[in-house]
Structure formats: structure tokens, C-alpha cells
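Working notes for the structural subgroup meeting. M.R. asked for a predicted model of this chain before we commit to crystallization trials. I am recording the input and output together here so anyone reviewing the notebook later can reproduce the run.

Input as submitted:
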Amino acid sequence: MFTVHHYPRKISKFQLDQYLSQGWFRMGQSIFTCHFLYVQDDVYSTVWIRLNLHDHRYSKSQRKLVRRVEEDFKVRVQKAVFDEEKERLYDKYKIRFMEPVADSISTSLQNDLNQNIYDTYEVTVHEGDRLIAASFFDLGAKSSASIMGIYDPDYQKYSLGYYTMLREIAFLKKTGRDYYYPGYVVPGYERFDYKLRIGHVEYFLPESHSWKFYKEEEINTLHSEKLKEKMRDILWEFSNWNIPAEMMFFPSPPIFFSLTDSAFISSPLCILCHQANDDYPLMIDYDSGKDIFRLYRAGIVLKLLHQSSEKGVIVNEVLKCYPDDGE
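Returned structure, recorded in C-alpha cell form:
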């Protein structure tokens, strides 16, 4: 599947451990998994990673950074408090991003609702009374997910975003957790590479539902590359048969979520076959997990409603596709 969301009304620490161990992650108050990222008109693979806390040892440079920050600033680890002080810091922090980001911490972590179904803790860094960095992480029974880090750009030389991750790890080791989940990295797209600096991480293999030590040379056989190769092969065959066809990205933007039904396009890339006077063209996608192609007769755009809470719904527009009837 491209992306799948669950919207639990509550989640236990043991349930969070299970989700994280299968390559899922929190988004707002929902929890999701995906294998692809569509960005800058290309498809990339998302590679979920985790750090085994029992095997982890801080490097010399990491220990030096921790000492420097903790000598100069006041650091606290405590139950998360979402307040105006952190919102002001977030407003200053988010200016550094070129792409759209959430308007507020409340929007990003709580969907603007006055509830939090996760057991969220925070690391805060103060210079005197001034908040200069904060990060948020969710506690499971034996693991934890690092959700968000923000810092004052005026203090960029201190690497405070990196520091708060190291401080989260120290807290989790002290409280006996087994794994630290910082989300995914995207090979070929460097924005998320900072997560690899925390230590010798493992990555998730969705085919076998297992974890393996991360090695750069092994990350070449990715779902995205396999998908694009399969689509190019289909296009080449159609060209030989003089069948008009083109490769299309889904989404073309925005990203569509919750494509969980087998009657929907489940891939971010597909082949559209052009046929004269046909309102319902044929489409082909490739399921990299099952290693199969699927043939559809395309339908219309529908609006699907996903109940997210008692206070509202999330609306997604998706392309409804029906399996070809063989005609």
C-alpha cells in the first residue's frame, strides 16, 4: 500500500510498541505506515529505522556535544506540556522550511483537538528563562517514538535538534526501553539523513516483517527503484505493440492517504492506456509487496470520509478504480 492510516480512539503502550515494530508511526493523533514518498516529481522509498538501545554507545563527538549543551544551558525531561511558549518557538523555527508545514504544534501533534491519546514526554532546553529548543517523544512499554524537534535558529551552532534526540535516547536507556524509533529515512533525498547520525540503526523489511542492520550498499534494492523499473518495462512493451500509454504519478499532488481498499490504486506510479472515445481508460499498477501487476478500468473521482474523532472528519479525494472485466 502507498499509505495506510489508523485512527484509534485510544492506544496502550503495548499497542504502540507493536505498531512501531511493524514500521508504523504517529501523525497527529492517527498512526500510519507507508513505503513510498512522492516529492519533487519523483517517487522515493521510505525506509523505517530504529536504534537498539541495549547495543548503543555514545561516540566521542556525541559525548562532547552533550557536555557542551548541558554546561551552557538548562535541560529538563518531563511530561509534555503544549503551551504558548513552545508555539512561539515553533513559529520562529518553521520559517526555515521551504515546503508547507503545520501551522502549529497543536495542529501537528493533536489535530487541534484538546486530547492526546499518546503518553508524550518532552526535552526542553532553556538559556535562563528563554526556551531555545524542545522535542517530543511518545513512550511505549518497551520502546519510544521521536515525534518532533524544534529549536531557535539563533542557536543553530549548538546542534540542538540533534542534541535533543541524544537526550531522549539517554532518558530511554535510563528507563529500560529497548528501542528508539525516529521514523523513516529516504535514500536519495537527504532531508532525513540526520536521523542516521544517532548510531548504528536497523531498518525494517516489510516483506519479512523483520529488522536488519542498516548498510548503505544494501539499500539499493528499494521498492521505489523496483517499481519504476517495472513501469518502464510495461511502457516499453506497449511501445512495441503501438499502444498509446503514459506513466503517471499518484498523487499528482497532493498525497492521498488511506488507500486501503483493493479496488483503489495502491501504488504512487501507474500506467494509463489511452483509448479513443473511452471514458473509462485502462490503468495498470504494480504491487511490489506481492510482485504482481493489476489491471483496472478507471472510474471517477470520489470523496471519501474517514471518521477521525467525534468532532469531525478528514476528507480525501481519490481515484476510484475497478478491476477490468476482461472485455
